[in-house]
Amino acid sequence: MIDFGIGYEDELLTSISKKRKELIEVAETCGIKNQETVKQSKELDILINLYQKYIFNRKLINEQ
């Protein structure tokens, strides 16, 4: 279960930044079509999607 408590947004943003750096390093080393690069890209997509859902849900809650 995901903890949406205090610090969740900061934690997500930190994870996104870290994953983005990892993706760039792997892509520069192995190439953009490498299996590890694709894996890192998918993991980054998941984190970004989580962040977008979090922001959307927070907005819904604040509108109520």
TrEMBL record:
**Coiled coil where?**
none
Superkingdom, according to UniProt? Bacteria
**Which InterPro entries does this UniProt record tie to the protein?**
HLH_DNA-bd_sf, Spo0E-like, Spo0E-like_phosphatase, Spo0E-like_sf
Which GO BP terms sit in this record? regulation of sporulation
Gene3D superfamilies, alphabetized: Helix-loop-helix DNA-binding domain
GO MF terms listed in the record are: protein dimerization activity
The record's section on Pfam families has: SpoOE-like (PF09388)
Annotated protein name in UniProt: Spo0E family sporulation regulatory protein-aspartic acid phosphatase
